[in-house]
């Protein structure tokens, strides 16, 4: 692992309190609204941001221990990002809602989040991690490749299945990069 930040400056807090839910919800909403605006403009599709945020904040097992994680990430004394880990039906895990606020980019926080989520997935016992990322998020793809993710075909139980019509789901798949990392010892 590595990074560009003093380790003591980055803190991970599992979202539990109402205050933390409000903070995490604000960051997730900011992220999803930005994505939604971009795909609406460039691809003429969209998703229901509020339904996604409400699901993230209200589903008790979605991102919470023992099978998941839902972190607010602080840099110093400021909220800088979020990152989530969810159990998939196939017994693997999925990284979701990984987002670093623009003011905190370039400090290695994204790398710290993905490293932490990989470590958590290993400690939970997942054998693989998956994720999906829109095609225009090249910096995210570079980060994921740098820690051993590779591109795969769309997988069952991906996060957008609940938020898209069948027609829009096909459009969404066409603009999405699906990735996977093998967590078996000695691989990836």
Number of helices: 5
Strand order of the largest sheet: 1-2-3-4-5-7-6
Q: What gross morphology would you assign?
A: globular
Query: Any idea what the radius of gyration is?
Result: 16 Å
End-to-end separation in angstroms reads 14 Å
Quick description:
The protein has helices at about 20-45, 50-60, 110-125, 140-145, 165-175, and strands spanning about 10-15, 70-75, 80-85, 95-100, 130-135, 150, 175-180. The chain has about 190 residues and is of the alpha+beta class.
Description:
- The chain has a single domain, classed as Aminopeptidase, CATH 3.40.630.
- Helix content is 37%, strand content 25%.
- The protein starts with 9 loop residues before the first strand and ends in a 6-residue tail after the last strand.
- A hairpin with a 5-residue loop joins strand 3 and strand 4.
- Helix 1 runs antiparallel to helix 2.
- It has 188 residues and is α+β, with helices and mostly antiparallel strands.
Q: What are the SSEs and their pairings?
A:
Elements: E1 10-14, H1 18-43, H2 49-58, E2 69-75, E3 78-87, E4 93-100, H3 109-124, E5 128-134, H4 138-146, E6 150-152, H5 166-174, E7 176-182
Parallel strand pairs: 4-5
Antiparallel strand pairs: 1-2, 2-3, 3-4, 5-7, 6-7
Main attributes?
single chain; alpha+beta; Aminopeptidase; 37% helix
